[in-house]
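Hi R.,

Here's the chain you asked about this morning:
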Amino acid sequence: MAVLLAGGATVALSQPAVAQKKKEEQKGEQLKLSNEVRGPAAQAQTALAAKDVATATPLVAAVEAAAKTDDEKYIAAALRLNLEVIQPGGPNNANLVAPLDALIASPRTAQADKAKYTYQRGVIQANAKDAAGAMRFFEQAQQLGYNDPNLPLQLVKLKMDSGDIAGGSAALAKMVDEQMAAGQKPSEDIFRYAISRNNQAKNPAETRAWMRRYLTAYPTAKNWRDMLVVWGIQPQSMVTLDKGQKVDLYRLLRSGKALADQYDYEIYAQWTFDQGLPWESKAVLTEGKAAGKIPASSPDAGSLLAAANKSISNEGSMAAVEARAMKAADGKLAASTADAYLGTGEYPKAIALYRAALQKGGVDANVVNTRLGIALANSGDKAGAKTAFQAVSGSPRADIAGWWIDFLDHPPVA
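And the predicted structure, written out as tokens:
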């Protein structure tokens, strides 16, 4: 499947010829051949079996020249196909067209073989970048009973290559959803192909839907990180987020142990520090060092950790700030103090302060509910977290909350 989706498909061509004739003779359906055809055909078969192209070439030409009836033309086309298949360096697609077309049209070709040859003609047209022709042959092959499992995928690829991204994506989604419902799991390449094509076509809703399918089937830490980076973290991502919004995605990766490397830890720590959260910055850098992701010699991490420690020392006790926050007229100080507790992993305190902030008002409820959901998720209250996330509205905040809900349902696995 990966080869199919990456480029032109190739299919090994079968070789009927006189072997087919013998098969039919056994069934009492002997082909009627003239002496002018039977002799060179038998000799050609022997040469073809030995892959003796030089000997077979004039013999096949003689059969073609002498063939008059449907039976003889069938044998001639089958021999020509066999000859083209064993050419040095492999078959030339252009030379396969005529014998395949003759076999498809022949009344002596069994329907199962017609289906196979029609499919092979579709492959040739697909490799020639003739999407319309390839789709026509593939659909005819389906009608004739050809049931190769790759055929639906080839039709999807042709639809997308011809510009019908929506149609191809819908057909692929139907196939994938049916397989998933049946307990089967398509290749990861299928999901990544659909995500890539929809993203290239600027179809964000469909791209996001494919990302969800992908993480439902393959919720690995790497895949979670890849999807979040493509969606909202990297430059030229699908959506434009500010630092605070990106930090909430990094918090998801941290919770799922899906931060990948030194860059992830250091940029996450830098952005939290920039937002006045040195406690979280310190915690992230400490985790990165302990996980072996941040080298002890990293100058960026060292200077940032020193700055975070200095800022924490200057801030003093958060208990006093917490007390003032609970007495304040609005919820702004409660929300910012809750953010600090969120970063240090003191989730009960963060939860209480976020709820106080919502009750007091004067804050962005969508931001606070997002962070409340994160604190609840990290404390183990999955139901409470979902309730908080579901209260978030507006883009991109509701979309970030949606990622967290997906995370709760399909957390990253090793």
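The radius of gyration is 33 Å.

Let me know if you need anything else.
M.
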